[in-house]
């Protein structure tokens, strides 16, 4: 829960087993990663995100109960009168000053206004704002800590911003966290920054593509037996739910549609030293909706954000006159930050699938279930 300029965001994470040590510093460092990225607007200079855990931990260890966290909005002080949830402290005049009657093409403004009956579309955009992704990152940071106990590592990097595509032959994944656009290709990085500067100067915005890789995922998460259990379907839905994401690919993705089967499928090989192994990972670590033990590789296409300093045409909903769409302070490009949100969503899905398969009330029980399964699997594969 939480509005972009409300008092705070609140997230409640259910289903974590008891006995898991959770580092709050780690949650906060993930929140800082999300705040960065070349192309973000002035809001990120106001915010300095950090969580307050209000339930579910005792002495830094999970109790098995819901974990509740809040992230305050520093900008709230500037919006209190317009956004106050209580009638006391709320000012109609302030709200009118902040009202949005000119919907932005591509934003939730108009569709949400129609559906919820809001002429003032601030009532929509406050929640449609990607500010809520801070809450996802906080929850995802807990999920990551669970997954790391089982050796699962998740990272993301930007492979396209607008027209600039990173070249895999130049990838250096070590440089991603220090790259202003979180790009593993230094040459593409420079051109991405130029494109963002250009878009900004033109009052425009830019989208792109990020990739998330999850390594050391055990084989056997998800299932082929029912559509809602398929791991690829769950990952696709989770990534697609990130504001501005318009496409998701797994492994080769759309490229697989262009190639014959012989060029797509990863051959199954065996050697006494390695046991069973695969000739490639075009499947992106998932076959039949089940993780196959190879790294899980997913990509998401992020549209350019809809708030444009040089706005598109719209209609004023009060009198239906043509006008320019509303333009307020905004980001120019959010793709680097979206990658961090993507990691969180992948972590939440994988943690859910891990607990579905190895679940227990205490983390030791989960570990025992995991170890006995892995023992069986390794006998089978070697
Ligand atoms: C957003 C607009 C900007 C972004 C915001 C999402 O905020 P503001 O309207 O306050 O300038 O910075 O993103 C965040 C606040 C965030 O934490 O990511 C929008 O309209 O979606």
Give me the secondary-structure topology.
Layout: E1 8-13, H1 24-35, H2 43-46, E2 51-55, E3 57-58, E4 61-62, E5 67-72, H3 80-83, H4 92-97, H5 109-116, H6 122-128, H7 133-149, E6 153-161, E7 164-165, H8 186-201, E8 208-215, H9 231-240, E9 245-250, H10 261-264, E10 268-271, E11 275-278, E12 286-287, E13 290-291, E14 296-302, E15 313-316, E16 321-324, H11 335-358, H12 363-381
Antiparallel strand pairs: 1-5, 2-5, 3-4, 6-7, 6-8, 8-14, 9-14, 10-11, 12-13, 15-16
The structure holds ligand EPS.
Ligand EPS binds at residues 4, 41, 43-44, 47, 75, 125, 129-131, 133-134, 307, 328-331.
Compact overview of the structure:
With 382 residues, the chain is of the alpha+beta class. The chain contains twelve helices and 16 strands. The strands form six sheets. The protein has a five-stranded antiparallel beta sheet. Strands 1-5-2 form a three-stranded antiparallel beta sheet, covered by helices on one side. Strands 3-4 form a two-stranded antiparallel sheet.
Helix share bin: 25-40%
Structural class: alpha+beta
Counting H and I runs of at least 4 residues, what is the number of helices? 12
Shape: globular
In order across it, which strands form the biggest sheet? 7-6-8-14-9
Question: Mind explaining what this structure looks like?
Answer:
The chain is of the alpha+beta class and 382 residues long. Helices cover 34% and strands 19% of the residues. It is built from twelve helices and 16 strands. It has helices at 24-35, 43-46, 80-83, 92-97, 109-116, 122-128, 133-149, 186-201, 231-240, 261-264, 335-358, 363-381, and strands at residues 8-13, 51-55, 57-58, 61-62, 67-72, 153-161, 164-165, 208-215, 245-250, 268-271, 275-278, 286-287, 290-291, 296-302, 313-316, 321-324. A five-stranded antiparallel sheet has the order 7-6-8-14-9. The protein has a three-stranded antiparallel sheet with strand order 1-5-2, with helices on one face. The protein has a two-stranded antiparallel ribbon with strand order 3-4. The protein is globular, with a radius of gyration of 22 Å. The mean pLDDT is 97. Ligand EPS is lined by residues 4, 41, 43-44, 47, 75, 125, 129-131, 133-134, 307, 328-331.
């Amino acid at each position: 829960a939480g509005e972009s300029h409300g008092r705070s965001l609140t997230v409640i994470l259910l289903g974590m087993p008891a006995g898991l040590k959770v580092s709050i510093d780690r949650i906060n460092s993930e929140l800082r990663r999300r705040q960065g990225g070349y192309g973000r607007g002035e809001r990120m200079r106001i915010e300095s995100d950090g969580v307050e855990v209000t339930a579910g931990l005792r002495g830094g260890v999970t109790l098995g109960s819901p974990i509740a966290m809040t992230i305050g909005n520093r900008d709230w002080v500037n919006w209190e009168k317009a956004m106050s949830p209580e009638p006391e402290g709320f000012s109609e005049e302030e709200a009118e000053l902040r009202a949005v009657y000119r919907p932005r093409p591509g934003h939730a403004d108009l569709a949400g206004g129609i559906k919820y009956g809001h002429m003032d579309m601030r009532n929509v955009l406050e929640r449609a704002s990607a500010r809520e992704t801070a809450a996802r990152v906080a929850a995802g940071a807990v999920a990551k800590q669970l997954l790391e106990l089982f050796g699962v590592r998740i990272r993301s990097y930007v492979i396209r911003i607008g027209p600039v595509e990173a070249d895999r032959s130049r990838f250096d994944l070590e440089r991603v966290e220090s790259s202003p656009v979180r790009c593993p290709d230094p040459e593409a990085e420079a051109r991405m920054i130029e494109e963002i500067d250009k878009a900004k100067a033109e009052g425009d915005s830019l989208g792109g593509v990020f990739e998330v890789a999850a390594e050391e995922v055990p084989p056997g998460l998800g299932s082929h037996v029912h559509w809602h259990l398929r791991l690829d379907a769950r990952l696709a839905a989770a990534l697609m739910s990130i504001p501005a994401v318009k496409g998701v690919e797994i492994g080769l993705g759309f490229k697989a549609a262009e190639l014959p089967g012989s060029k797509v499928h990863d051959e199954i090989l065996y050697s006494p030293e390695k046991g069973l192994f695969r000739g490639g990972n075009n499947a992106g670590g998932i076959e039949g909706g089940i993780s196959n033990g190879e790294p899980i590789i997913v990509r998401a296409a992020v549209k350019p954000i809809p708030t444009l300093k040089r706005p598109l045409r719209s209609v004023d909903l009060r009198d239906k006159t043509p006008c320019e769409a509303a333009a307020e302070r905004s980001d120019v490009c959010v793709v680097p930050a979206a990658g961090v949100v993507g990691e969180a969503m992948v972590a939440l899905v994988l943690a859910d699938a891990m607990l579905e398969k190895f679940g227990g009330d205490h983390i030791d029980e989960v570990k025992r279930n995991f170890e006995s399964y892995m023992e069986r699997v390794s006998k089978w594969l070697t």
